[in-house]
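Listing S7. Sequence submitted for prediction.
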Amino acid sequence: MIVRPSEIESLRAAILGTNLVRIEFDRLWRLWNDAAPRFTGDPDQAAALHHALRELSDSVVLELPKQAWDRSTVPALPRHVLVPAARRAANGRAWMTFPWCRQLGWVSSLLTLPPALFEDLIALNDWFGRVVQEGLPVVPVRYRSGEIFGREKRLDELERTTLFGPGRLNLAMLACRRLAPPAPAAAVGTGPDVLVVENSDAYWVAVEELRGSAEHGIGAVVWGSGKTFPAQVPSLAVDVAGQGPLRGIAWYWGDYDPIGTATAVAAARATDGIEVRPATGLWAEMARIPVQEAGTLDWSAAVGEEWLGSEVWAQLSYVRAAGGRIAQELVPVEAVVAWVAGLSASARG
């Protein structure tokens, strides 16, 4: 396989002629077919393009990506290339005259646009141009981000910029959605409720004890994974330990410290579809335990009294006054079993 200098030159001229900062592979492949038609249908077509792109990269006509490569071909081919000359031309206000698609027409009215965001918007413009929006399957956000940018977290970053908002971009336009991280859980029964515990050791103890207990209303024990549980709450509406969506109440129990109560309050506010209530009896058990780490914590801005209830909050006032905490691992295992046994359809907590 010998790629002629004239073919590489034709590809160079075609790439620069697009005036695009970022050229997606589909367009790049068409440009190559036009520049070197003798390779069309040839087994060496991909290898010839690979060689031409390397030549153009060495002469700084284009920049090859570091990670976004399609390795289903031999040799691998880039999912896109960047064109430095087009980037330099964009240092003016090229976005104001760029031929944006209907979904991105608002970009031309922006007063400023950093070069990196201009490149991202061009990638989005290319994507909108090559997909049929109607009937496009909705996928998780990082799958769509990888498809558009070759970087699975780029949409996460862009969603925090002014490119997203009313009249601009949103995930629905991109046919993707954000899914809650899964909450680790273990089935312990057939009941509709779940017990959520903050810490991993307490989780395993609860799982072991409840699996060996008599019939009760707890269907699964969920590990709250520390401070991450508020983000995981929506996943309970999808599946809990393979039992399907949560059918009852999520009873929450964690450490009694400012972070533990703040996590509980945030979890309770996470979604309207899931009821997160305090496992009151287990929090109350903490009032039987001497304070830990006195003088090390600031409770002045702590939240949780309304959620936990004024009675239990008052019982634990000595912990706040001492500037300390109580870890849930100090509560006897028997108390967990007793609390579960005390649950009933008419009076829970």
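Caption to Listing S7: primary sequence and predicted structure tokens for the chain studied. The two ends are 76 Å apart (CA to CA). The first helix runs from residue 5 to 17.
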